[in-house]
Amino acid sequence: MQFTASTQATQESQLFVCTHSDQITDETAKIIANTLTRKEIFGTAAIPVSGSLKHIAVVYLADLQVETMQKAAKEAAAWAQKQVSLSINLHPFCNLNTPLVTQALVAALGEAVYRFDAYKKEPNPAKLQSVEFVHPERSEMIKDTLSRAEALLYGVNLCKDLANTGSNICTPTYLAETAAREAQAVGAEAKILGSDYIRENMPSFWGVAKGSVQEPKLVELRYFGAADKSIAPIVLVGKGLTFDSGGISLKPGEGMDEMKYDMCGAATVIGTFIAAAKAKLPINLAVVVATCENMPDAGAAKPGDVVKAMNGTTIENLNTDAEGRLVLCDALTYVEQNFTPKAVIDVATLTGACIIALGNVASGLMGNDQDLVDALLQASRNSNDKAWQLPLFPEYKEQLKSNFADLQNIGGRPAGTITAATFLAHFAEHYHWAHLDIAGTAWKSGVAKGATGRPIPLLMQFLVEQTER
């Protein structure tokens, strides 16, 4: 889908956006706006013009809060996707609000037309092909906004595509090579390390990966967008389990197909990285992804095994289905040994307990630096990509004490999301760190099954706000 900016409408199908009907000069659109009740935010009509129908729609914004704009944009996008091309009239909006409305509409339109049908015999592509945003005075501003909004949309769609792809195709090698290819295409650096390095240097990671015939990969991406390339980078770390069977602690069969989504943390940080590079954000950014499968092979890790992590900590593996933290702990140590980071944020579909706590509405957020956590919460509010902070009180460490090792990898049912983050915190003591548990927000089940692309909007907003400080 192509987005453009213009000073006047050129398409037959038109969408008018307003906060009051008096702002609309088009006669048909004004009539539609005046028929809307106080609870209605969208109306449409089709009028005959020269033997065909001209489609007109109005979306009414009760206020200019992000959540209001996104809700209205989503309803408008459901209608817009049925058009071939569309003009969106934004003339009522000022310098401050024009970009916000544009961003909300691009995101909603992108979501409405997204299809993942590459493996279907008869694909069903979206009808909508082009959208022009119209403002008589602010077309240049809209062009700048579109550049960043399209970059975000690209990153979200890349994340969705990777996550939706079956694990027989999206293997650790596929994920790593796709990340490297996408990074190099935007002028960033990419490095991939394989099983030899992981076996010799990252024993906790290897303990999970060794049960699969698929080779594990460690992916490192670097983008230097700041004027000063020596400024410490923000590092995003992603859990990349391209399939999680649970290992010897085998998961139930029902719904196991969705364990292809256990790499959504990796897909999220890759998508965010590519979006930031495409948008040319003036920031130094890096990504580290640890990707493998968790399978019940004869050589797989067993409950009760003790493994030494990359930083020398010994870990008793009480449940092989708590493998994400065993992979991430070495990735966090790799970051300590290879970067001097400004901040580190790991993203993972880590615990089912997070779904019990927060449902599918908010991602769980924890960290060892309140300023970093507060910045992520602010970005969450500004993007309406919801997150909620959970505590990391020292008392939770008691649940991770082992009789036979420095730590055990599970702390029992109580506070499962928090004890998982407490485990990771042990490996992030030497830098500012935050953890996003996206088990409830990364994908949807049921009829609407598919990846959501969250929390890329939150992370992208965070990165933008970091550049404005």
Keywords:
13 helices; 19 strands; Macro_dom-like; 469 residues; six-stranded mixed beta sheet; 22% strand; Aminopeptidase; Probable cytosol aminopeptidase; Leucine Aminopeptidase, subunit E, domain 1
Strand content: 15-25%
Overall number of strands: 19
Number of helices: 13
- By CATH, the architecture of the largest domain is named 3-Layer(aba) Sandwich
Q: Provide the gyration radius in Å.
A: 24 Å
The percentage helix is 25-40%
Whole-number count of domains: 2
Principal-axes geometry comes out as elongated
Quote the CATH topology of the largest domain: Aminopeptidase
The low-confidence runs, each spanning 5 or more residues with pLDDT under 50, are none
CATH class of the largest domain: Alpha Beta
The CA-CA distance between the termini, in Å, is 33 Å
Helix/strand-derived category reads alpha/beta
Question: Which helices and strands occur, and which strands form pairs?
Answer:
Layout: E1 2-6, E2 14-18, H1 27-35, E3 42-49, E4 52-60, H2 66-80, E5 85-89, H3 97-113, E6 130-134, H4 139-164, H5 172-185, E7 189-193, H6 195-201, H7 203-209, E8 217-224, E9 234-244, H8 264-278, E10 284-294, E11 305-308, E12 314-317, H9 324-338, E13 343-348, H10 352-358, E14 363-367, H11 370-383, E15 387-389, E16 407-408, H12 416-425, E17 433-437, E18 443-444, E19 450-451, H13 456-467
Parallel strand pairs: 1-6, 2-4, 2-5, 5-6, 9-10, 9-13, 12-16, 13-17, 14-15
Antiparallel strand pairs: 3-4, 7-8, 8-10, 11-12, 14-17, 18-19
